[in-house]
Amino acid sequence: MVKNMGKNNKKLWGGRFLSSTNTKTEHFTESLSVDIRLYKYDIKGSIAHAEMLGKTGIIPQKDSVKIIKGLKKIQTDIESCNFRFSVSDEDIHMAVERALTDDIGEPAKKLHTARSRNDQITLDMKMYLKDAIKNMIVLIEDLQGNLAEKAYAYADAVFPGMTHMQLAMPVTFGHYLLSFIHMFERDQSRLKDIFGRADEMPLGACALAGTNLPIDRLYVAKKLGFSRVSRNSMDAVSDRDYIIETLAAVSMIGIHLSRLCEDLVVYSSSALNIINLPEGFCTGSSMMPHKKNPDVAEIVRGKTGNLIGNLVSILVTMKALPMAYNRDMQEDKKPLFDSVDTVCGCLEIISELMKSVTLNSGALNKILGADLGLLATDLAEYLVTKGIPFREAHNIIGRMMLSDTALKNPREITLKELRKFSDKFGPDSTKLLDMKNSAANKKSLGGAAPVGVKKEIRKWLKKNR
């Protein structure tokens, strides 16, 4: 997009300065290399501002028309790579205004009436953020849809549920995948909340105190699609809560993706091998011919650290800034852009990966058939139904887990063996020694029973497809 980063020392704000800006200062303080991506929002905001200035008579209508025409031409030039950027412009605001002045002359000097870069950058960032949030929500919904389809395909497939990375109780793979769908639903909810708070137009706050001129902020807000305007000019230009909240929400999305990826790495490892990862999302070793490495999952897991780091950087930057705007806030854009780009990339690739994940039934059956511990809670709850207090039932089954009986395939354990531990075990108790029955019996609301899981999955599929 940038055709040439030229040099021009004459500043649009330089009236009280007798000497030019040091070249090193220009390079050190510029943000154009980062905020150049805001050009569409900067121009859109400037067009709405120019329309308002003309409508209210603050500037002549004919000048407003010339300004708007010039701004549209600048956007065309930028998008066709025919725009000459200069590092001396400092930021995207000055780059656009300088080009407008070069193009239409005197009327361009009226555009910045009743406006400051302080409220201008906040406007640009909020417009960018609203679009970014909408895009992230779409990507989350796509991932949820793919998880739901995979979950439905495996709604009856028994899967070893774990706590503390130890075998715990049978669930189904569908129920397991649903847990992440619910995680990502909370992420959506957070983003929607942030969107509501970011949907407040700051333009008109100016540098920090508003303006003496008869501007129409509500008109501009409506033009730009904001539901309301800010009510305190100092807060409007100094607020970066919407950025901090977004970075926190994005970090949480990253954590949820990382937890999913951690499971993919562990479950697809040669030690467990109960999940098959599609080869298109894995790589080999440059030295070891047999390796199939889960690189995509590992990289997503690694990128989550960057997301958390970006959040911390803004928290530290903002923690002790005095009112109102301070130049430190220039450092808010790079971590926000990086985090949004990163999480969008992660959501897209994991969504695609999950379409092709399959279960390794051989390895699964080996695990499910070798550990009575997965059914220990079922046996304890059975004794509860026979009148034994849970703590006593817990101790009885705990002793069973220390015996040779626990080493047998659960399907091979007889009623006689069960009754060695409690005479409350009846003929119906042997039905408990089946992993599918165990999962099917978890019919409590939100439990692992396939009948409930399928009902929940259908709800998600209907929502996302």
Please give the alpha-carbon distance between the first and last residues. Answer: 36 Å
The CATH homology group name of the largest domain: Fumarase/aspartase (Central domain)
Number of helices: 18
Structural class: mainly alpha
Q: Which stretches of 5+ consecutive residues score pLDDT under 50?
A: 1-8
Percent of residues in beta strands?
5-15%
Give the neighbour order of strands across the main sheet. 1-2
Mean pLDDT: 93
Structural domain tally: 2
Topology:
Elements: E1 5-6, H1 23-29, H2 32-35, H3 39-55, H4 61-79, E2 85-86, H5 92-104, H6 117-153, E3 158-163, E4 166-172, H7 173-198, E5 200-201, H8 217-224, E6 228-229, H9 233-238, H10 241-267, E7 275-276, H11 295-318, H12 333-354, E8 358-359, H13 361-368, H14 376-385, H15 390-401, H16 415-419, H17 435-440, H18 450-464
Parallel strand pairs: 1-2, 5-6
Antiparallel strand pairs: 3-4, 7-8
Provide structural commentary.
The chain has helices spanning 23-29, 32-35, 39-55, 61-79, 92-104, 117-153, 173-198, 217-224, 233-238, 241-267, 295-318, 333-354, 361-368, 376-385, 390-401, 415-419, 435-440, 450-464; strands at 5-6, 85-86, 158-163, 166-172, 200-201, 228-229, 275-276, 358-359. It has 465 residues and is mainly alpha-helical. It folds into 2 domains: 5-113, Fumarase C, Chain B, domain 1 (Orthogonal Bundle), CATH 1.10.275; 118-365, Fumarase C, Chain A, domain 2 (Up-down Bundle), CATH 1.20.200.10. A hairpin with a 2-residue loop joins β3 (158-163) and β4 (166-172).
